[in-house]
Amino acid sequence: MKLHFEVDGNDFLLAGDASGKVKNVLKKLGIESSIIRKIAIAMYEAEMNMVIHANGGRVDVDILPEQIQVVLQDTGPGIPDIDLAMKEGYSTASHEIRELGFGAGMGLPNMKKYSDNLHITSEVGKGTKVEIIILLK
Dihedral through CA 44, CA 26, CA 116, CA 7, nearest 10? Predict the structure, then answer.
């Protein structure tokens, strides 16, 4: 099963909408709750980063018998140093975003923690691609 979503940048009211819809589809498919939790957390964190840092983007989800693959692609500013960005507490979020309760520097670490496989590619000035894999078996 393939799902596609567009994430609207800077709209915090819709942030997390795609991950919520995927969660509901997985529930209807009878996927184990611990797996649903992993995908919901990892995908939500990636979605929030798209809203906070990249003016939105697109999400493609492929639900296969052995795994769920989520690919999030944006055309934002890119991540200059992925290794640094992966450190807990590191954040480039603005003061305004932090006042809203976001930007604590846990997005990428949480994506890694709740994914079975996480691959991030980014080019400064062109955007970022995040690939999340959750194994079903």
Answer: -30
